[in-house]
């Protein structure tokens, strides 16, 4: 059952990821990204990282995909023709694809070396452990991340503000 | 050691999804995102592919964390998601500012630093 779900989510995620890359329309690409992220959230749930699956759906599926769609609508750059690829680009990407394929194939399971999933506590205890670690061991990173979010917010405000007297400053 | 039913379902079936499967899937996702970054000309789509690469890396982290039995990977992924959200906001703001200045977001036409 778990294996079936894994296969389903894996195929779904990869197909949607390919859709992001090959779609000419940026709106379709961002919808494919959203579907692909939903697939990854399903994989997270299979890995018993329920909180992360939920956060991924909320943050990525909710906020980020909507932000992408919003920017696509705002910029409205449909209809631009895609120039054909150069020969060097094609050769380089083929070589890189071959190298990546070799790398991925070298990860194939060797017989008798498969680690079983470690025995971790049940969900409730695991979530408690998670929160405990977040607020004890990783307290400083949490604070820094909060500060980083504040800085990002200020930066975005400054970036998207129109400066009227920018010529005077120069 | 007590086995919970969930762990039995996830880990000890005859054909369970192994760590290798997750790592290969993560590598494939990362490769797809990488080729999107290399091949696409639209800055927004490049940015989406960048997000795809980030999510692929987090999938690998969560899988390793699960099969290691520790929570550290999950906590790290939590931080990565936060940073990625901030990164998306800043990146999209930069793209909008760029579009305002240059009226295009095709990377071929953004060659002010060339030569």
Task: Characterize this entry briefly.
The complex is a heterodimer of chains A (170) and B (115). With 170 residues, chain A is mostly helical.
Task: Walk me through the structure.
The complex is a heterodimer of chains A (170) and B (115). Chain A has 170 residues and is mainly α. Among the domains of chain A are: 1-77, Up-down Bundle (Four Helix Bundle (Hemerythrin (Met), subunit A)), CATH 1.20.120.1200; 122-161. Chain A has helices at residues 2-22, 26-46, 50-75, 87-105, 123-135, 139-160, 166-169. In chain A, helix 1 (2-22) runs antiparallel to helix 2. By secondary structure, chain B is mainly α. Chain B has a single domain (17-102), classed as Helix Hairpins. In chain B, helix 3 (43-68) packs antiparallel against helix 4 (72-102). The longest helix of chain B is centred in the last third of the chain and has 31 residues, at 72-102. Chains A and B meet through helix 1, helix 2, helix 3, helix 4 and helix 5 of A and helix 1, helix 2, helix 3 and helix 4 of B.
Task: For the structure shown, list the relevant keywords.
heterodimer; A: 170 residues; Four Helix Bundle (Hemerythrin (Met), subunit A); B: 115 residues; mainly alpha; Helix Hairpins; 74% helix; elongated; disordered N terminus
CATH topology call of chain B: Helix Hairpins
CATH class wording of the domain at 1-77 in chain A: Mainly Alpha
Portion of residues within helices of chain A:
over 70%
The rough form of chain A would be described as extended
Number of beta-strand segments of chain B: 0
The residue-averaged pLDDT of chain A reads 82
CATH domain topology of the domain at 1-77 in chain A = Four Helix Bundle (Hemerythrin (Met), subunit A)
Q: Could you spell the SSE succession of chain A in H and E letters?
A: HHHHHHH
The assigned structural class of chain B equals mainly alpha
Q: Any low-confidence stretches of chain B, pLDDT <50, length ≥5?
A: 1-15
Helix content of chain B: over 70%
Biggest interface, chains and residues, is: A-B, 83 and 81 residues
Q: How would you state the average pLDDT of chain B, rounded?
A: 81
The low-confidence runs of chain A, each spanning 5 or more residues with pLDDT under 50, are none
Domain count of chain B: 1
Counting H and I runs of at least 4 residues, what is the number of helices of chain B?
4
Report the biggest beta sheet of chain B as strand number plus sense, adding barrel if it closes: none
Beta-strand residue percentage of chain B: under 5%
Q: What is the CA-CA span between the terminal residues of chain B?
A: 65 Å
CATH architecture of chain B: Orthogonal Bundle
Radius of gyration of chain A: 22 Å
């Amino acid at each position: 059952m778990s294996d079936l779900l894994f296969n389903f989510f894996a195929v779904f995620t990869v197909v949607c990821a390919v859709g992001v890359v090959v779609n000419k329309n940026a709106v379709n690409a961002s919808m494919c990204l959203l579907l692909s992220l939903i697939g990854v959230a399903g994989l997270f749930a299979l890995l018993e990282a329920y909180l992360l699956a939920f956060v991924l759906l909320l943050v990525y599926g909710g906020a980020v995909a909507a932000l992408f769609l919003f920017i696509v609508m705002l910029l409205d750059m449909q209809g631009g023709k895609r120039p054909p690829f150069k020969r060097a680009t094609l050769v380089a990407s083929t070589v890189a694809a071959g190298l990546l394929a070799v790398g991925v194939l070298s990860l194939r399971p060797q017989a008798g070396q498969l680690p079983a999933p470690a025995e971790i506590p049940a969900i409730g205890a695991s979530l408690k452990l998670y929160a405990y670690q977040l607020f004890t061991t990783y307290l400083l990173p949490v604070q820094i991340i909060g500060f980083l979010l504040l800085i990002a917010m200020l930066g975005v405000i400054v970036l998207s503000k129109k400066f009227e007297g920018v010529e005077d400053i120069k | 050691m007590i086995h919970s039913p969930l762990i039995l379902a996830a880990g000890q079936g005859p054909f369970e999804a192994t760590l290798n499967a997750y790592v290969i899937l993560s590598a494939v996702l990362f490769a797809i995102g990488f080729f999107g970054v290399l091949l696409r000309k639209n800055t927004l789509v490049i940015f989406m592919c960048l997000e795809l690469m980030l999510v692929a890396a987090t999938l690998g982290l969560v899988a390793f964390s699960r099969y290691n039995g520790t929570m550290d990977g999950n906590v790290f992924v939590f931080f990565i998601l936060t940073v990625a959200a901030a990164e998306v906001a800043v990146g999209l703001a930069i793209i909008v500012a760029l579009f305002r200045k240059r009226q295009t977001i095709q990377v071929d036409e953004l060659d002010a630093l060339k030569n």
